[in-house]
Every structure is written in C-alpha cells, then in structure tokens.
Amino acid sequence: MQVTTLYTWIFDETALSRFWLFLLGAHIGKNVSVEEPYLLEPDLVHIGDDCVAEFEVQFATAEIRHGYLEFRTARIGNRVKLGARSILLGGAHVHDGCEVGPKATVDFYSSTTQANQILVGSPAKPDGQTSGELWRPKRGILYTICQFTACILQLFLFACVVYAGISTGLVILDKYGSMELVVYIASAFNVIASFTWLVLMVILRRVLIPFIVPGKVYSSSWFALRKWFLDRLFLSPLYAYTAKLALQTSSTLPWYMQLLGARVGKKAWLNHPYIRVGVELIEIGDNFRAGMLSYISTCRHSKDGVSFHPIRIGNDSSFGQRCVILGGSTIGDSTTAGAESLIPYDFHVNEGGTTFGCPPVVFTTSASHKDVVQQTQEEAGKTVKARKEAEGKCNTSCKQINLADTEESKYTPTRMQDFMTGCKFWVYVTAMIIIQLGFYIVAGGAYGGFYYAFTVWLGELRLEYLIGVIPIIYLMGSLVLMLILKIMQSLGGGFSVGTAEFFSLRMFYWNVFADLVYMCTSTIIYPFSGTQLYCMWLRFMGAKVGKRVFASPENGGFREIDFLDIGDDVVLMTPNIHAHFSTHGMLQFCPVKLEDGVEINPGATIMPLTQYGKGCRLRPFAVTVKGQVYNADTEYIGNPCKIIRAQATKRVAILFPGQGSQYPGMYSSCLEEP
C-alpha cells in the first residue's frame, strides 16, 4: 500500500501505473486507468481491459474471520468503472461493462450476476443498466509521451528542491563546521521550501487552467493533459506534507483554497481534504466543519470527456471524516453529514437536514441544536457512570454535563459577543500556526543538541559512527516526545465526557495533544503494531486493554486513546476509532467499548458512544452509527452497517432513545438486511 500511495502516485492515470501494479503481482489488462488504489495483496486483484478505477478504490481482499486471516480474490471484468472510494471485498466479481458507484461496497454476495449493471449502495445492489461502452475516451501515443515528459518534469522539480537543501547544508558546514547547526537550519529550510511549493501550485493552477465553464464538456487531449498534471500535484503526498507543514491545515487551509479560487466563508474548519482541478467551483459558507480526509471533486468523467459542476455548502454545516462530496450537490444551512457519507452528483440536502451512509439517507429533526447535544452527552454520561460503578471507581467525571453555558444561548448574541468570538478565532489560529511551524524548528534544534552531545562523548564522528548514531538519536527524541505526551495528559490532556466549543482553549489543547498522539502512534510506535509493545503504549496513554489483544491500525494511529476500553482476545486492525465528533458547532467526546473477542477489520469506522458485544465482527470498511449497541456474535457490513450473520436469532442493533427521537425513521431503516 505504501508503494501505491507514496511512491507511484506520479504515474497514476498513465500506462506506467499498470506497469507498477503488474510488478507488484496484480493481473492488469490493457488501457486501465487507476488513481491511488488501496491494495494490500495486489496478487489477488484481477482487472480486465479498458477499466477505470477512480480515486482511492479499496481492494480489501483479506480479512479476519473467527480468529483466522482469510484471503479471497477480487475480479473485475472488461470496461468496468469503479467510482471514487468504492470498496471491493474478497470474493467480489464485477462483470463486463458494469459501473460501481462511489463508496459502494461489493462482496461475494452482492456481486453482479450479469453484465452492464449499475451497482450502488453499501452493501451494493443493482440500480439500472449501463450502455457497456468505454468510460473515458482513448488518447493517442503523443498524449502518453507528454505524460511521461511531465512525470520527468515533476521529478526534476523535486530533485531541484532536494539539491538546494543539500547544497545549503554543505555551505553552512564548510563555513561554520557545525553539523548541529546544519540540522537546525534544515528544519527552517523545510518550512521555507514548503511555502514555496504551495505558492508554485497556486501559480500553476492559474496559468495552466485559468478558468472553467460549469457544465461544459472538455474533450481535448491538451486540456486532459493539463488537468492530469495539476491533479497529480494536488493529490500527491508532497502536497499533503507541505500543507500540513506550512499551514495549520484545519483553520488556515480555507485561506489557501481561496488563493486557488474557491469561495470559503469565515471561520471554516477543513481537516486535510483532498481537492483537485475544479476547486474554483467550490462554494462553502461560514462556520463549516469538515472532518479529516474528505474528498471534494467538482469534475465528472464520461466517454466524451470531463465536465465540472459547482458544489455549494451552506453556513453552520458539519461533515464527518472521509466523506465523498461530488459535483452538482447543494448542501443547505445547518446540515450534518455523518462520517464516511456519500454526497452524490446533483444531490440536495435541505436546511437543517442530516444525512449519512451510502446511498445517503436524509433525516430532519424538530429538536434544537442544544437538545441534540444535551441528549448525546446525557447518554454518554450514563454509559461512563455505569462502567465506573461496575469497576467501583465512580467519581465526578461520571456526572452528566450541563450545557446551559457551553452551547446556544436563549438570546441573540450582542455585537460585543460577536467581537469576542472573532478574537477567539484569531487567537486560536495564530497560536496553532506558531506551534505547528515552531515544532519542526524546535525538533531540529533538539536533534542538533543530541548530535552535539554525541560529538562531545565520542569526539569526531566518523561515517561508520554516524550510521549507528542516527537511529539512536531518533529513538532518544521519540522517547522524549512520548514522555512529553504523558505529562500533557497528566496536566489535562485526557478528556472526560463533555463538549468543547470550536476555537476554545479546551479545543486548542485537544488539537495539539491529539495531533502529537497521532503522530507518535502512527510513526514512532507504528513499527511495533501487532505486538504487546503496542498494547503497552496504549495502556501507558490511559486505554484499558485486555489480554491477547492484536492492535495493528493499518497506516495510521489513534488520537483519544484514554477513551478506549478493549476486552480480551480483540483483533483491532483499523485506525478509524473516534471518541470525538463535530456536530452543531460543538466538539463532543464520548467513549468506545469493545468487549471480548471483537474483530474489527481494516478500514472499518468505529464511531463515538458505541459498544460491541462479545464476538461482534465488523467486515472491512463497515461504518457504525453514533450511539449504537452492536450485538454479540453478530457480523456487520456496509455503510451504515447492517447485520448479515448471527449465531442465534437475527436481531437489529438498538439505537438509544435520544437519537431515535432526533431522527424519526432511523430505527426502521436499520431493520433492512442485505
């Protein structure tokens, strides 16, 4: 997976992408276009001729079932289109000429039985017929040559940046003879180079594609080549790295999107979204909140070319993590979209609506924002209190939260209150920028100090010493960071059930602490995932972890570790465990409990305030619902997940009364089985 996402992205949607996947063992036909596919077992993937796999198609060909790791093949016929972030589980077979919709989940049971079908939903179901024609126009050999030339140009630009950094370091070393100074300056150069790269991307976007006409079909090879080049830059790991380094991504990325041409309102919060060509057709209102890694795309491909359609999102809306928002959609004011939700082409959500799942289900509620938050926190408080009483440790943190002074007021805010709210936002953003930029410089200085200490101890460091010293310095720095995190947690980094207003001091502390925990869990500790050392780290940071637990979050880590309650013999293979969520302008914290023998497969999303009975099992990329209790000895699939197998009688998961009253019809929708 690291190869396909970090190292071969530059060859996506070119003939070389097929070549790389072929070298990894995949069976790939002719004229296949893929874009950052997610696959861990490429030799189990079979793709026919003339297929299109859009952004981040997930091939989950392995999963844990009853304590065993099972492998199955995923087969794709000819002329098949796989939508953005669609999911193919082991045993899936998609026949010739079919179309799998965005975020649809196809497994052995929902595979097509005939050619030219449209599959939508999670789990997928037939929803019409296709024409069986090619999904994108074929390009000539000249187009391919230009793509390869552009690949070489991008690699040349990266090489120039690296060369400039190395040359600067050698000049400093030659003039001052101080390696520790070189290490320190390298951190500052890293920040400067990141700013330069982001500015260059703005210039390239405005020069190569200065404007786009909404609805017009662009079919020329010259436009397709320029779009491909810019998309490779926007979706590259280098862009993600520079955005995180040079921007405080959540609160200052909206400003950068405005430079790219998008219209973004005040106090928007966007956490690492994926954007691409057509960003200038995105319109976002004030106080918008979006969870991490959402995919926002205004473009729509067809056999005739590509067209672009505006996306409009109203004020005071909240979106969960990894949503897919497609062109032509309109989202009204004060709407909420759950994590992993699909907003399909030309979809409309009215003001005050709530949507989640794939295909999206829309609910409305007459309850006020304050009542919605209050109900969730009361249920969370009861859950924690019952758990603490069972352990004989009930204390003040078990009390329910009174939100009378933390959320909506019963009167209209005054101008002075609006002014203070604006000041709070700017103080928050300024502090996050200083911390994010200063962290790398301070880290560089710390590593330079470690290096200096070794030079004093060993004298002049020869090359053979340096090779052994660098890993030791990295390990020392990692241990210091882990100690700092534990001290921060002891001083208030651990969060009990409750809420935090956006851009408040509590949220600021959580943001810094959670990002450091995630960085430590996904980089420093990640090589030890799946071992008892990883479980020891979770316990060290406050999680309750049972015996014989296998915790290996693929390509990621956790944030609110002290909210986890994990039983014995649990298999945990997803990083998408969330003890927080954003709704109605508030950040809420709720616990997660996994009882003995629970199996959570890769890509599954565990939402806050959920509980999983003994032997419960989530299949790959299943998505749970906030406040739900999942039955023992029961298997779930889909988005939102539904029961597919139980040891005894089939039972539907029970929603807590507060959530059921907020969204009429939610309970009955969960009764449907695939």
What does this structure look like?
With about 675 residues, the chain is an alpha/beta fold. Among the domains are: about 1-130, UDP N-Acetylglucosamine Acyltransferase, domain 1, CATH 2.160.10.10; about 145-365, Hexapeptide repeat proteins (UDP N-Acetylglucosamine Acyltransferase, domain 1). The protein is built from 14 helices and 47 strands. The strands form eleven sheets. It has a six-stranded mixed β-sheet. The chain has a six-stranded mixed β-sheet with strand order 18-20-25-28-31-32. Strands 34-36-40-42-44-47 form a six-stranded mixed β-sheet. A hairpin with a 2-residue loop joins strand 7 (about 60-65) and strand 8 (about 70). Helix 3 (about 140-175) packs parallel to helix 5 (about 220-235), helix 4 crosses helix 6 (about 235-245) and helix 9 (about 415-460) runs antiparallel to helix 10 (about 465-495).
Distance between the termini: 30 Å
* Major β-sheet annotation: 6 strands, mixed
Rg result: 25 Å
Major sheet: arrangement of strands: 2-5-10-13-15-16
Taking pLDDT < 50 over at least 5 consecutive residues as the criterion, the unreliable ranges are 391-420, 647-674
Instruction: Label the overall shape.
Output: globular
Topology summary:
Blueprint: H1 2-7, H2 15-23, E1 27-28, E2 33-35, E3 38-39, E4 45-47, E5 52-55, E6 58-60, E7 62-65, E8 68-71, E9 74-76, E10 81-82, E11 87-89, E12 93-94, E13 99-100, E14 105-106, E15 117-120, E16 125-129, H3 141-176, H4 179-208, H5 221-234, H6 237-246, H7 249-260, E17 263-264, E18 269-270, E19 282-284, E20 289-290, E21 295-297, E22 299-302, E23 305-308, E24 311-313, E25 318-319, E26 324-326, E27 330-331, E28 336-337, E29 342-343, E30 348-349, E31 354-356, E32 361-363, H8 369-391, H9 415-458, H10 463-493, E33 498-501, H11 505-524, H12 532-540, E34 544-545, E35 550-551, E36 564-566, E37 571-572, E38 580-583, E39 586-589, E40 592-594, E41 599-600, E42 610-612, E43 617-618, E44 628-630, E45 634-638, E46 641-646, E47 654-655, H13 657-662, H14 666-669
